């Protein structure tokens, strides 16, 4: 199918994605139609199919992009000379990364149920890779005697849930700065693993 005359895929494509992100976060995936996305972008509904095969592809793309960017950011972290330093780096990165992307985080956690089984499996694989990184830090801390954790898998899930929850209430310009929130949460994570 040919592109609409006068359209610019480098401009309209990202606008379609941004509109889907905004609408899915505000109303939920199931409540948003392709027609609404088109209206938000300012194109005819049929023109959307020049940029995406369907609504499911948009949802999957948003989730996959979020997770691959998160994994890439984690890869850029210094390993840390000790498990405690590695855990602090992980904690601060998670808070910073997610605080800048509230809509992406909401969709990544709340819309999993709307993925097709095939797409769900791909996103779960990315999520597992991220969780495995934290679990490896916790296991290294247990092995070195730095951490006291009875079940590293459960501790991994608890820490990620606690850190991700900040995204629901933190707002720039509020009572505490992001740096202050990071420090408070790092203190809680540190104590949770027995440091």
List the helices and strands and how they pair.
Layout: H1 9-27, H2 34-41, H3 55-75, H4 83-99, H5 102-110, H6 117-144, H7 152-165, H8 178-192
What is the β-strand count? 0
Query: Termini distance?
Result: 59 Å
N-to-C SSE string, H for helix and E for strand: HHHHHHHH
Q: What percentage of the residues does DSSP assign to strands (E)? A: under 5%
Q: What would the principal axes of the Cα set say about the shape?
A: elongated
Low-confidence stretches: 1-7
Helix content: 55-70%
Q: In terms of structural class, how would the helical and strand content be classed?
A: mainly alpha
What does this structure look like?
With 195 residues, the protein is mostly helical. The protein is 67% helix and 0% strand. It has helices spanning 9-27, 34-41, 55-75, 83-99, 102-110, 117-144, 152-165, 178-192. The N and C termini lie far apart (59 Å). Residues 1-7 have low confidence and may be disordered.
């Amino acid at each position: 199918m040919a592109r609409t005359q006068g359209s610019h895929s480098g401009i309209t494509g990202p606008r379609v994605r941004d509109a889907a992100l905004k609408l899915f976060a505000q109303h939920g995936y199931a409540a948003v139609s392709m027609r609404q996305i088109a209206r938000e972008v300012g194109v005819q509904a049929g023109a959307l199919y020049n940029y995406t095969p369907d609504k499911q592809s948009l949802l999957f793309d948003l989730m996959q992009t979020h997770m691959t960017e998160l994994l890439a950011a984690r890869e850029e972290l210094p390993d840390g000379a000790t498990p405690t330093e590695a855990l602090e780096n992980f904690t601060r990165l998670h808070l910073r990364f997610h605080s800048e992307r509230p809509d992406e985080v909401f969709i990544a956690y709340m819309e999993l149920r709307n993925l097709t089984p095939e797409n769900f499996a791909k996103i779960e694989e990315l999520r597992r890779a991220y969780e495995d990184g934290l679990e490896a830090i916790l296991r290294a801390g247990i092995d070195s005697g730095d951490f006291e954790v009875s079940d590293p898998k459960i501790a991994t899930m608890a820490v990620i849930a606690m850190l991700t929850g900040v995204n629901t209430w933190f707002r720039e310009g509020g009572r505490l700065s992001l740096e202050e929130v990071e420090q408070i949460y790092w203190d809680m994570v540190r104590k949770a693993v027995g440091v």
